[in-house]
Amino acid sequence: MSGEEIKIDIDKELNLKGKICPYTFIETMLTLEEMEPEEVLRVIVDYPPAACEVPRSLKNEGYEILEVLPINGTDWAIIVKNKEIE
Amino acid sequence: MKFSDEQIHRYSRQMILPGIGGKGQRKLMEAKVLIMGAGGLGSPAAIYLAAAGVGTIGLADFDRVELHNLQRQILHKTDDLGRLKVESGRETLESLNPEVKVQTYSDRVISANIPEMIKGYDLVLDGSDNFPTRFLVNDACYFERKTLISGAILRFDGQLSTFKPHSGGPCYRCLFPEPPPPGMVPSCQEAGVLGAVAGVIGILQANEALKEILGLGESMAGRFLMFNALNLSFHEVKIAKNSNCPLCGENPTIKELIEYPQVCQA
Question: Is B261 domain-assigned?
């Protein structure tokens, strides 16, 4: 994945800097549960394992990961699309 | 309702599970479970339900804590001797999880008070130690259309099932139409019971209650589980609704609550 961010419309942003796993995943999931179906969430994390673990856990729960990319030396952005109506 | 940081931390290891998440945790926090008996089965069941964050737990027991209870009734401690079990139980549950609302009933459960008692609950766990109460709880759950998670223990053996006759499954009387005659079956007082057996079955009751609340997995409705501690064996048999059941069958003869005499109860 390149460092160039492709243009995706973001409906909400969640700053999880300073949070560690599994709370990064849980707080992401809680936020998605309150969003509308198919809305897009951008999550910022600075805990290195979270950049891999959070997208993997979200995929396991059926969410679509649109993009994972470093945004500077310490932070990553995870862009995830909410599920359709269950 | 937003979760606090403390709630997210407390429940993180179950919120992370597939099929639970925030929605499942909310279901648990809104759930109301009544536990009949704060003894060998009710103790471990109540502890796990409180730990999981079940919002309202009812404890019904008229007994007081005695020394011979402490071998298996883990809600109570040596300092609680002589106290009402529901009071000692409430204290244990509230110290484990202050978010849980504990409602206590220290009157003996009888036909006159049980319908009102169970009305406000979603689920009933039976951990009673005698047949008259066991049949009364089953019949009341049938009339009030409440799911009943039934557990029983004696010596080294345990049994477990879930009864949901309102959604097509059997009730306790489909298996056992009438209580055994007094004196036929020994009580725990006479025959003894291994404390850990109470733990196994009580925790399985909690497990089934959590599944029913969350709508996860395979319900124990229509299944009857037998546990033996000495062989460490579990056997399961399928059980069907009995069309001749005196309570939920095609021509029921039981139209109202029956109170069988309590034998050998002080």
Answer: no
Q: Do A22 and B12 touch (CB under 8 A)?
A: yes
Interchain pair B16, A23: CB under 8 A: no
Q: Which amino acid would we find at residue B252?
A: P
* Mean pLDDT of the region B129-151: 96
User: Averaged over B98-122, what is the pLDDT?
Assistant: 97
Helix (H) or strand (E) holding B235: strand B233-238
Average confidence (pLDDT) over B4-31 = 95
Structural domain contains residue B12: no
Residue B234 pLDDT level (bands cut at 50, 70, 90): very high
Contact B15 A26 (CB under 8 A): yes
Per the residue annotation, which of A21, A29, A44, A68 is the catalytic one? A21
Q: Does B86 touch chain A (CB under 8 A)?
A: no
**C-beta atoms of B16 and A25 within 8 A:** yes
The domains of chain A, with CATH numbers, are: 12-81 (3.30.110.40)
The whole-angstrom distance between residue A79's C-alpha and the CA centroid of its chain comes to: 5
Is A21 among the residues known to form the active site?
yes
In a domain, B229, yes or no: yes
Q: Is residue B64 part of a domain?
A: yes
CB B72, CB B193: distance < 8 Å: yes
pLDDT tens-digit map of B24-62 = 999 999 999 999 999 999 999 999 999 999 999 999 999
- Domain containing B81: what range? 31-238
The answer to whether B168 touches B177, Cβ cutoff 8 Å, is no
| A61 touching chain B per CB within 8 A | yes
Residue with tokens 């409906």: A11
Nearest CA in chain B to A32: B22
What's the CATH number where B136 sits? 3.40.50.720
Q: What single-letter amino acid sits at A74?
A: T
Tally of structural domains, chain B: 1
